[in-house]
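Priority: low. Protein: Thiol peroxidase. Input follows.
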Amino acid sequence: MTQERTGVATFKGNPITLVGPELKAGDSAPPFTVSKNLLEDASLTDYAGKIKLISVVPSLDTGVCDAQTRRFNSEAAGLGDDVVILTISTDLPFAQARWCGAAGIDSVITLSDHKEVSFGQAYGVLIKEFRLDMRSIFVVDKNDTLAYVEYLGEMAEHPDYEAAISAVKALL
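Result:
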């Protein structure tokens, strides 16, 4: 049975239900399968040996998600080759590619959770009512342990960018 958490998050003040566990720093990063494109999948093991900043957004085509992805794209250059920034949403892979091209995003990897919402369920960010992933941040160390976790209480708010970047830098 899949765990559901209610009363922990809202969308414009209205309660939403998150599906999956609430993870904490120190937990092992759960495995997941997402789409790189329509024919190729990606998983946590594809980024083995790297520090992973996982930026989760509901949809790249919204203002806060756009700003969040642009911010981490601009921060990427200062983090070095040991760090990979993954942006995960339920947008279709070709919509993600179109958006990245139009926005000039070239330093983050966009991955789609649209097929099985594997990431959303494993990380406790799947929004039951919308079949979108809730805005959140996960920093995963080189050994696939969660070093930083931020679940936002309100879907339309920005994450704590500085805290996420500091968590990455602490692992370097």
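The longest strand covers residues 4-11. Helices lie at 63-76, 93-103, 118-123, 161-171.
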